[in-house]
Inverse folding.
């Protein structure tokens, strides 16, 4: 039995789950998320708990069991609490700002980089060197943070770049130049 898949999902107050056929809709205070559940997975909603069951012990069904439960859990968490990812800009002159709905990054290029914020995502810049990415969809928040990080990934020699908050970069030693021999 899947350790993750067999855990029931508690539904907090203020969250509504609607399940018809294979389509699930989760509504909460922060918004609404939709999911098309695999038709072979059995979903039961009773007494404020959502449970996921699988028909057989085939490898495919075992994988889908845990995946389906995790996706539903992330939807419930997203519409009730939301998800946040934080990024830090490390480097001399590196800074971020908001211009309208766009995020503008000055990260050592000859030009500022504009990043269009996708719908369903909120981006805040509390300090010029910090970016907060928030939203209800865990996958979209993570993907957006990853795309912003790809603008200038951290490099191992000086540690400059865009890092996830709390991320540690393994530093490398630079070249050790040989003395010139004649």
């Amino acid at each position: 039995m899947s350790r993750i898949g067999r855990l029931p999902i508690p539904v907090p107050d203020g969250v509504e789950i609607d399940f018809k056929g294979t389509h699930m809709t989760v509504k909460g205070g922060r918004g609404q998320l939709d999911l098309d559940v695999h038709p072979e997975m059995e979903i039961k909603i009773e007494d404020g708990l959502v449970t996921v069951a699988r028909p057989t012990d085939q490898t495919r069904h075992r994988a889908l069991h845990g995946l389906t439960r995790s996706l539903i859990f992330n939807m419930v968490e997203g519409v009730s609490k939301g998800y946040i990812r934080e990024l830090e800009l490390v480097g001399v002159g590196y800074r971020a700002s908001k211009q309208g709905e766009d995020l503008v990054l000055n990260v050592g290029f000859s030009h500022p980089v504009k990043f269009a914020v996708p719908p369903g995502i909120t981006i805040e810049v509390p300090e010029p060197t910090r970016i907060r990415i928030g939203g209800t969809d865990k996958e979209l928040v993570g993907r957006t943070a990853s795309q912003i990080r790809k603008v200038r990934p951290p490099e191992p020699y000086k540690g400059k770049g865009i890092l996830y908050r709390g991320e540690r970069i393994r530093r490398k030693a630079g070249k050790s130049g040989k003395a010139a021999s004649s």
